[in-house]
User: Which sequence fits this backbone?
């Protein structure tokens, strides 16, 4: 299985995606940043972001059901850990990218790789 190289939060460019208060525990927010579909999850008060593109067949994985920190792709049922993007079950066999997240002044910030 492929493990994506995590984005270094020290060099990432953080983009504000909205108030943390709008994404309560167990909830999610889907955003488009620079053409990337990204899903931000609140898992028991901590925020995580993964690509909203299933590694099996490009399905909208973040629209699936959430079981604790596991998201189940609505298309064919592959599961991923939303904290890391790590694949947990077939039919997917490849991890999906995850992004660093932080909260500052009540705003959720998602970190993308620096340009250039
Ligand atoms: S597209 Fe997600 S499991 Fe097939």
Assistant:
């Amino acid at each position: 299985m492929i493990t994506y190289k995590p984005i270094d939060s020290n060099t990432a460019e953080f983009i504000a995606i909205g108030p943390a208060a709008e994404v309560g525990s167990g909830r999610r927010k889907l955003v488009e940043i620079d053409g990337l579909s990204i899903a931000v999850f609140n898992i028991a008060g901590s925020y995580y972001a993964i690509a909203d593109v299933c590694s099996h067949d490009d399905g909208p994985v973040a629209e699936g059901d959430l079981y604790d920190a596991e998201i189940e792709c609505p298309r064919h049922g592959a599961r991923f850990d939303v904290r890391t993007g790590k694949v947990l079950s077939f039919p997917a066999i490849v991890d999906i990218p995850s992004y660093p997240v932080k909260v500052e002044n009540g705003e959720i910030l998602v970190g993308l790789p620096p340009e250039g």
